[in-house]
Amino acid sequence: MVVGILVWVLAVFASTFVAKENFWLFLLMRSVCGIGEATSAVVSPTIIGDMYIGKARSWMLMLFYMVSPLGNGIGYIVGSQLARQLGGWQWGMRLTPLFGVASVILIVLFVFEPERGLNESSNSTGKEDIGNAPLKVKIKTCTYTFSTIADTCIDFVMGTLAWWVPTAIQHAKAHEMKLNSTSLLDENDKANIAIYFGIVTIAGGIVGVIMGSALSTLLRSGKLCFKCCQTKRSDPIICALGALIATPFLFGGLQLIKVSVEASYIFMFVAITGLCFSWAINADLRMTIIVPWRRNSANAWEYLISHFFPGPYLVGLLSDRIRLSNSPGDSFDALLYAFYIPSALCGISALFFIIAATTVLRDQARFRVEIGIHDGISSEKDVGTKENANNNYELEEATYENKTFKTTEISSGESNVI
User: Fold this and answer.
1) Is pTM beyond 0.70 here?
2) What pLDDT is stored for residue 236 in this prediction?
3) φ and ψ at 278, to 5 degrees?
4) What does the DSSP 8-state code read for residue 407?
């Protein structure tokens, strides 16, 4: 993780000195930045998963993912202000390496890698799986496959929003002022749009991560208003709920830009809040279906797949193809129509999270058998067989809160944790 962040810092800093004649080099540097981002996003949840279990892990993951929109929003605001004050976008990006270096120092001094799966009574001390065979194992874990598809849709939407919504607002404002181009807008107006949308992103991200984790915990435990509908399928259900909430508010927020920017910001806040429901609890969900020695690779594949589709590029390309002219009004309308794709993907994401909810209990039962934990429901001869775990997963989940562990001897003479 330290190496990845250092590469990230150097690539960001170096990219700000590339001359405009060497645009290909700039693109290369920006691509290398993904190494550091991916390293942190992949390894950090695994470390948290090894350090904590149960509710403690859920809350720690919530804190980890809560600071992500906070950092993004602050960077968006501060970077745009530095670029405006110092007369170049490069200055906005030169601030980033300072935080990167601080992160490396903190990691070296205070972060120690825990033993893999120690807190989950893992029977395996194997190394992280690599190669094609482990990928096949993960694909067979249906909940992982469906939640990865759903998360890919969410990331597509979030990336597109961050890139194109401020541009759409600029087009709408230029059209309202009867300007021929957004370049004629006052720089203060552009800066204010960036600041306001950054605030909306920060607030929606923080509220969404907290609400998603809290609702999932309450639904799982059957507390407060969820007494009548307690379920162990809470993680994918709340993820689906967030995507369903985001769908109409995203669509409505875009439609309101020309009518009232303030109302549009409110709708966007609700949409971003719903989209961020899944950030922490989807990661927590993976910890309950993927064994400790496969989590790094599982996170890596999920991160790769979810970022494989370039949402901003595809929406921008479609907008260019259907735009009637370069006027701000036509540019806004083209973006509006292109945004039908992200709006539809919100609904598709909800669908796949709902499908994941139908498979999660079975996959969690298989997970517990694979790491050597059983809930005392099946007979001794059933312990350690994935088939019987599959058959009994509903009963196991119903009594999971009351489980006890003891060491017993099974017929093969080997010790198992029950």
Assistant:
1) yes
2) 93
3) -85, -10
4) E
Under-50 pLDDT residues of the chain: 122, 124-126, 131-133, 376-418
- pLDDT for position 120: 65
The confidence score (pLDDT) of residue 416 equals 36
Angle between helices 142-176 and 295-306 in degrees, nearest 10: 30
- CA distances 289 to 84, 87, 283, Å, are 47, 50, 10
Length of the chain, please? 418
- The per-residue pLDDT for 251 is 92
Maximum pairwise Cα distance, the chain: 83
What phi-psi label fits residue 231: left (phi over 0), alpha (psi between -120 and 50 degrees) or beta? beta
- Tokens of residue 115, six digits: 């033993």
pLDDT at 189: 83
Structural domains of the chain ordered from first start:
53-93+116-370 (1.20.1250.20), 380-417 (no CATH)
Structure tokens that stand for 404 in this block: 């006890």
**3-class SS at 258?**
coil
AA identity, residue 294: R
**139 Cβ partners below 8 Å, 6+ apart?**
145
- Give, in order, the Cα–Cα distances in Å from 159 to each of 163, 267, 282, 309, 328: 6, 17, 18, 10, 22
